[in-house]
Design goal:
By secondary structure, this protein is an alpha+beta fold. It has six helices and ten strands, in the order E-E-E-H-H-E-E-E-E-H-H-E-E-H-H-E. It has helices spanning 42-57, 65-80, 132-140, 152-167, 220-230, 232-244; strands at 2-4, 14-19, 22-29, 93-102, 105-111, 115-120, 125-129, 189-194, 198-204, 256-262. The strands form two sheets. A five-stranded antiparallel sheet has the order 1-10-9-6-7, with helices on one face. Helix 1 (42-57) crosses helix 2 (65-80) and helix 5 (220-230) packs across helix 6. The chain is globular, with a radius of gyration of 19 Å. 40% of the residues are buried.
């Protein structure tokens, strides 16, 4: 595992951790300067939620991943619901990706725009992500087309687009993210593959995935090759180098985290070869 804060002097709002047979990665989100909404902050939320997930995964009992996430969201909401305005759109939230090896299969769950790369033993990588937030952001940004940046009109339209995006959060037809509503877990992208079909698996936060898009430094097979040769820290190093050389209008550096799982456990109880991922 490797992680890097996007901005010096600010907390890293990503979280990554593992227990035997399982790993999680969370990418925190929220609005800076909203201490009046939640005094704890986004980094607190991602670390508490990540710890709660690992605690539920550590028994290795094969509990349904949707249930694991839902109960963890509920637990952390109860921890600060009495002191913080969890209903406010700016309160802390996080994307989630979970992988868990159990009885010869690798189960996965994704909520919002993290990336899971399955290194298939018999073929190229299979990349799994939850594209609904990106689609919602694209749709809400349409009014910005043709509006000159740096003008009062641009600021006004951009603020309206941001409000429209928040209105789609954890709503049917919008996108789903871990926040205060445990029912969001029911909307996660889930799947399962026989472990014998996989050589490894990688989890990347949105900031780390920039190595593929928008920077185009490599493709997903190249990411797996880089992880095998030089490890997760090298992926992040190359992203940071690209960010440093980006134009003034490019997106600012983001927290970046990578988890690379290898030597996956095998079991004769593995299921049918070639089963396709299930998506809920």
């Amino acid at each position: 595992m490797a992680t890097s804060a996007g901005t010096a002097g600010r907390p890293n709002e990503d979280f990554a951790g593992a227990v035997p047979g399982a790993a999680v990665l969370l990418d925190g989100a929220g609005i800076p300067g909203t201490e009046s909404i939640c005094s704890h902050g986004v980094a607190w939320y991602t670390h508490r939620l990540g710890g709660a997930l690992l605690g539920r995964l550590s028994p290795g009992d094969g509990r349904d991943l949707v249930t694991v996430l839902a109960t963890a969201i509920d637990e952390i909401a109860a921890e600060h619901g009495a002191t913080c305005d969890l209903a406010d759109p700016g309160s802390p939230q996080a994307t989630v990706v979970i992988v868990r090896a159990h009885r010869g299969r690798l189960d996965h769950l994704l909520l919002a725009d993290t990336f899971l790369v399955l290194d298939q033993a018999g073929g190229g990588p299979l990349v799994v992500t939850d594209e609904r937030e990106v689609a919602a952001r694209r749709a809400c940004s349409v009014p910005l087309a043709g509006v000159a940046e740096g003008t009062p009109e641009y600021d006004r339209v951009r603020a309206a687009c941001t409000r429209a995006l928040r209105a789609r959060r954890n709503r049917p037809g919008g996108y789903w993210i871990a926040k205060d509503d445990p029912h969001a877990a029911e909307e996660a992208v889930t799947g399962s593959r026989p472990l014998r079909d996989l050589s490894g698996v990688a989890l990347l936060s949105n900031g780390a995935s920039r190595i593929v898009s928008p920077y185009g430094l490599t493709d997903w097979p190249g990411v797996l090759d880089l992880l095998t040769a030089d490890g997760p820290a090298e992926v992040i190093r190359r992203v940071r180098r690209a960010e440093a050389g980006a134009s003034a209008g490019a997106a600012p550096p983001d927290d970046a985290t990578v988890v690379h799982c290898t030597d996956l456990p095998r079991s004769p109880a593995a299921g049918r070869r070639g089963a396709d991922p299930r998506r809920s």
